[in-house]
Design brief:
The protein is an alpha/beta fold. The protein has seven helices and ten strands. α1 crosses α7, α3 crosses α4 and α5 runs antiparallel to α6.
């Protein structure tokens, strides 16, 4: 049961999601990196795929330089939806999915980077957190979607058909967050982010984050992805 994953080459770690795939009988991961200059063979990529997962990005959905990569990503979502293949879209991926569904994102008043609690409609399957947010654009909820969680700042999770869009990062492990912070430390500190506190919380709540991600994915896979 292959999983097609769309990601930046620099941010393609699936982290806790890998365990979720194993738990639910999902197997081979086919990775599509957004930086590829050649057109993606979308129909071929989706052949026999049981799930599409898209991750965060170094880009903004407002960047003109990455417009063609977003267009390719939208074609993947469009074809997956037409075929009835479930989609789990995270952070930037969620914003691109919203764009494809007619709800483009807009710039946030300020970056939202840190651990957040969400107001969840069902905390048994979508825990309230804390979850890791790291974004500069606000997730928009398309017409016909069901809002499942939000913060005072913006929507965080919605379902649309067999798709789940998630603004925060359920996949990121403490070790992966350490790596990303090291890549962006100067920029984070310029934005006033306490990077030591950010990473310390990841390590402090590692097992809780793992369990919450299993809950989130389990609810998605048995409910939304199954068309229930």
């Amino acid at each position: 049961m292959p999983v097609l994953t769309v990601a930046d080459e620099e941010l393609d770690a699936l982290g806790y999601l890998t365990e979720c795939f194993d738990m639910h009988g999902l197997g081979e991961v086919r990775m599509c990196h957004r930086a590829r200059s050649q057109p993606w063979p979308v129909q071929e990529l989706l052949e026999e795929a049981d799930l599409v997962v898209s991750l965060g990005s170094l880009s903004s959905v407002r960047d003109e330089a990455t417009q063609e990569a977003r267009a390719q990503e939208c074609r993947v979502y469009r074809a997956a939806i037409e075929r009835g293949i479930p989609v789990l879209a995270i952070c930037y991926g969620a914003q691109v999915l919203s764009q494809e569904l007619g709800a483009p994102s807009r710039e946030a008043p300020s970056s939202e980077i840190g651990w957040v609690e969400v107001d969840s409609v069902d905390s048994a399957t979508l825990p309230t957190g804390p979850w890791l947010d790291w974004h500069d654009d606000l997730l928009a909820v398309p017409v016909g979607a069901t809002l499942l969680a939000r913060t005072p700042v913006a929507p965080q999770v919605y379902a649309h058909g067999r798709c789940l869009a998630v603004q925060f990062h359920p996949e990121v492990t403490p070790e992966e967050l350490d790596r990303r912070v090291a890549m962006n430390r100067d920029a984070l500190e310029e934005q006033g982010v306490d990077v030591e506190a950010l990473t310390a919380q990841a390590h402090r709540q590692g097992e809780r984050s793992r369990a919450m991600t299993r809950q989130l994915f389990g609810g998605f896979w048995s409910g939304i992805a199954a068309g229930r």
